[in-house]
Amino acid sequence: MRVLVVDDQELNRVLLQFLLQDEGYEVVIATNGEEALERFDDNEIDLVLLDVVMPVMDGFATAPLLKEKAGELYLPIIFITALDDQASLKRCLEVGGDDFLNKPFDKVILSAKIRAHARIRALALKTLEQKKQLEYHQNQINREHEIVDHVFKNALMDNYQDKEVVDFYMSPHSMFNGDVLLIATNPVGGIYVLMGDFTGHGLSAAIGALPLSKTFYSMAKKGLSVGDMAAELNNQLLQLLPDDMFCAATILEMNSSGKSISLWIGGMPDTFLVKPDGTLNKIINSQHMALGVLEADEFETTVLNIETNPGDRVVLYTDGIIESVNLEGEMYSETRFEDFFQADKDTSIETLINELIAFRGEAEQNDDISMAYLTCTNKLQAMVEPEQSFSKLPFHLRLEATAEELKHTDPVVEMLDVVSQICGLSDHRSVMFLLLSEVYNNALDHGILKLDSSDKDGDDGFMDYYFKRQDALSALTQGDITINAEYQPNGNRIIFTITDSGDGFDMSSTSDNTVNDKEHGRGLSLLAELAESIEYSDKGNEVRVVYLLEA
């Protein structure tokens, strides 16, 4: 420990130097305040013994300057004085002194005071070092956050931006958002929307957005179906995320006419379909597990297909909205959220968020909050790029799936993987998937599994129907479905013929050769809008769908 002794009297300096060196301290000598400041600059001083009355610069003027030079680090200054009036002693403390010692010196008291202040000095040194380390690590964290934030912004910069088509609000609980919203157009004039909610909050939750966004945008450019997207995203997250992390997600595709949507919903809150007047029209439940949970052979790619009208809005949101809590511990709840959508009321996102903030009051936000409105419109049709040339060669493909294969494979995906390789057809994959999957699912559900669409009625109808379907499929021992695909280059059309081994249905019970399923999903009536023609066999177990490939 190094002590600076400042006194104009040589006898005092010698005596203090002798006492201090005898205690094992290093001593630096100064004869006045000016000299003390110079010695302080040239040496690492741990404690100062400072006389009050000195020529050139006295102790009262020197003390604050020494404190200033010491900066944040505690520098003990013990005044050595013969003054004993209270005003003088008070001033010693006011100008920066930490203690005082009366002349003549008492060796025991001097030694005790120095040891006491040395302990405080040691603690101050340790605290300052810890503070510097914390500042260093904080600067490192801030820099890393800046880098990660830059990466995230670049990863999500491909999002399609048009408030008239997709309006959204996102508010993270912490610096990084565990919610993700991805928006992209497809090659045939439609639009994809993915809203996801990763486990947890902050950077650990947000890190999954990088592989998710890269895969999503890549598949959107190829015009893949919603089911295919879900399967690939599940595989990606299953490989990358730890076992305790997953991503609840809704993946949606709106076709170019704005008259239908396809949804894959896994682990998310209900999706709402709202009429233009603000009325809640339909509540669509989640049917699947979240992404990143199930292995590929367990994962379900089944999608819901729903008819929409121009001006309808699809409302997507994460559970941060309905689980928002006020100071009384009361949640905003699904009921309040549903009640918000009423006819002839302003049900914009801005109005909803203001209502949510008012409900929460002074309570802090307890989760990431995200919501998006997709407006059903044909606005994107004008953005469709010209089609590439079509193959000049005719093709005929046939796929037969037995009962065992129906249980463990998706013949629609298998067929489209091959058909999409034909020159010019890959850009039509999304529409072909809608056509083929609708007919295939009807053949499987009603022709082979003999399920009744009325099972979907009721509050939990879709979920009950889904479980019945799973049970029936698991118990399936016989039955088969054949898919034929015929490409005709002369007419620029592809013809799908789907035949099931079931009993068929009574054609006289339907009108215009369509199955009356309008209350359950989008129904076969949507096919008439997308296909050039649809024909059923007399027995009703064979459907022929003709799709025109417009150049």
Task: Summarize the entry for a quick read.
This protein is 37% helix and 22% strand. It is of the alpha+beta class.
SSE order and pairing:
Blueprint: E1 2-6, H1 10-22, E2 26-30, H2 33-42, E3 47-51, H3 59-70, E4 77-81, H4 86-94, E5 99-102, H5 107-155, E6 166-171, E7 179-185, E8 191-198, H6 202-206, H7 209-222, H8 226-240, E9 247-254, E10 260-266, E11 271-274, E12 280-284, E13 304-307, E14 313-317, H9 319-322, H10 333-340, H11 349-360, E15 369-375, E16 395-401, H12 403-408, H13 411-419, H14 429-448, H15 461-474, E17 481-488, E18 493-500, H16 527-530, E19 533-536, E20 542-548
Parallel strand pairs: 1-2, 1-3, 3-4, 4-5
Antiparallel strand pairs: 6-15, 7-8, 8-9, 9-10, 10-13, 11-12, 11-14, 14-15, 16-17, 17-18, 18-20, 19-20
Structure commentary:
The chain is of the alpha+beta class and 551 residues long. The chain has three domains: 2-127, 3-Layer(aba) Sandwich (Rossmann fold); 156-383, 4-Layer Sandwich (Phosphatase 2c, domain 1); 395-548, Histidine kinase-like ATPase, C-terminal domain (Heat Shock Protein 90). It is 37% helix and 22% strand. The chain has 16 helices and 20 strands. The strands form four sheets. It has a five-stranded parallel β-sheet with strand order 2-1-3-4-5, with helices on both faces. Strand 7 (179-185) and strand 8 (191-198) form a beta hairpin. The longest helix has 49 residues, at 107-155. The radius of gyration is 39 Å and the shape is elongated. Residues 509-522 have low confidence and may be disordered.
